[in-house]
UniProtKB/TrEMBL annotation:
Keyword 4Fe-4S found: no
Official protein name in the record: LysR family transcriptional regulator
UniProt GO BP: DNA-templated transcription
Similarity comment: Belongs to the LysR transcriptional regulatory family.
PROSITE patterns, per database record: HTH_LYSR
Species of the source: Pontivivens ytuae
InterPro entries documented for this protein: LysR-type_TF_proteobact-type, LysR_HTH_N, LysR_subst-bd, WH-like_DNA-bd_sf, WH_DNA-bd_sf
Superkingdom, natural source: Bacteria
GO molecular function annotations of the record: DNA-binding transcription factor activity; sequence-specific DNA binding
Domain HTH lysR-type: start-end pairs: 7-64
Keyword Transcription attributed: yes
UniProt keyword terms in alphabetical order: DNA-binding, Transcription, Transcription regulation
Length: 298
C-alpha cells in the first residue's frame, strides 16, 4: 500500500505549520482552523506515523530533532504541491494575481488598473489587498507590491520607486501658520515630522495634536475634510492633490529610506512574461505619479 494513502494530509499540514509557526495558535491562523483542531491533527499524524514529532510543554509544542527534519521535508513538499496547483489553475487562463497593501490598492492602484487592462487585454488581473506579506511559495499569488527597505531573503525583490513624504492639507488651511494647524496622527505609522523639518529646513513651530487615526488612508481623508496637516506620500495623496482636494502645505520632501518593491519567487529562473508586463506598466505609472509632484522614482 502506498505510504501516503495511510496518512491524512491535514495531519501532515498541521505538523508542518506548527513547526514553522512555533505555536498552535499561529498554525491555526495559517490553516484557518482552531488550535484544538490543529492539536488533534498533530496527534493523529503522530499515531499514524508511529513516532513523536513534538515535545509538549505548557501550551506549546517544540519539534523533536526528528520532527524538525520531517517538518522541513514537508515544507519543501507542500511548496512543490502549491507550485503544481498554481500551474494547473493558471494554465491557459492568463490570470495575474497581485498582492498589495490595502492603502496602496484603494488610493492608487484601483484607479489605474483599467489602463493596464487596456494595454494587456489577454490578462485577467486579480488584486489581493492584505497587510501581511504573502508566502509566494505557498500561494497562487504571482507577485507582491510592498513598501519597505528591502531586499528580503528568500524572494526576488526589484525596487520600483523611492518613497517620499511631504505635508498636505486642505486649501482652506494652507495659508495658516503650521503652528495653528492640527497635526493628524497615524498611530500605526512612523513619525516623520522631525526628519522632514531637518530635510526641508522648515523651522516653523509644530501645530497642536490633531485627531488620531489607525492608518494613513483615514488621515488623508481627515486632511481632505480640513481637520489638519498630514505627512503623505505620492501614491496616497497624489490624486487628491490633482483633484484640488489637497495642496502641499509647505515645500520640501523627505526621502524616508523606504521604497516600493516588486516581490516575486526567488526560485524562478526568469520573470514570467505576465509579471514582466505588469512590472513595466507599474514602473511607468509610478514614475508618472511622482513626476506630477516634481519627484523622481530613483
Amino acid at each position: 500500500m502506498n505510504e501516503l494513502s495511510r496518512i491524512h494530509l491535514n495531519g501532515l499540514r498541521a505538523v508542518e505549520a506548527v513547526a514553522r509557526e512555533g505555536s498552535l495558535a499561529g498554525a491555526a491562523a495559517l490553516l484557518g482552523v482552531t488550535p484544538g483542531a490543529v492539536s488533534q491533527h498533530v496527534r493523529r499524524a503522530e499515531a499514524q506515523l508511529g513516532c513523536t514529532l513534538f515535545d509538549r510543554g505548557a501550551g506549546h509544542l517544540v519539534p523533536t530533532p526528528l520532527g524538525a527534519e520531517v517538518a522541513d521535508e514537508l515544507g519543501r513538499g507542500f511548496g512543490l504541491l502549491a507550485a503544481a496547483v498554481r500551474r494547473a489553475r493558471q494554465a491557459g487562463q492568463g490570470t495575474l494575481t497581485v498582492s498589495v497593501a490595502p492603502i496602496f490598492a484603494s488610493k492608487w492602484l484601483v484607479w489605474r488598473v483599467q489602463d493596464f487592462a487596456a494595454a494587456h487585454p489577454e490578462l485577467s488581473l486579480r488584486i489581493d489587498a492584505a497587510v501581511e506579506m504573502v508566502d509566494l511559495d505557498r500561494s497562487d499569488t504571482d507577485l507582491a507590491i510592498r513598501v519597505g527597505r528591502g531586499p528580503w531573503r528568500g524572494v526576488r525583490a526589484e525596487r520600483l520607486a523611492r518613497q517620499y513624504v511631504f505635508p498636505v492639507c486642505s486649501p482652506a488651511l494652507a495659508e495658516r501658520p503650521l503652528a495653528e494647524i492640527p497635526m493628524l496622527v497615524d498611530r500605526n505609522g512612523p513619525d516623520w515630522w522631525a526628519a522632514w523639518r531637518q530635510a526641508s529646513g522648515n523651522a516653523e513651530p509644530a501645530g497642536p495634536p490633531g485627531p488620531v487615526y489607525s492608518d494613513g488612508a483615514l488621515c488623508l481623508d481627515a486632511a481632505i475634510a480640513g481637520q489638519g496637516v498630514f505627512l503623505a506620500w505620492p501614491t496616497l495623496a497624489g490624486d487628491a492633490i490633482a483633484r484640488g482636494q489637497l495642496v502641499i502645505a509647505r515645500p520640501g520632501v523627505l526621502d524616508t529610506g523606504a521604497s516600493y518593491w516588486m516581490v516575486t519567487r526567488a526560485g524562478e529562473p526568469r520573470l514570467p512574461p505576465k509579471c514582466a508586463a505588469f512590472a513595466a506598466w507599474l514602473r511607468a505609472a509610478l514614475a508618472e505619479s511622482h513626476a506630477a509632484l516634481g519627484l523622481e522614482t530613483s
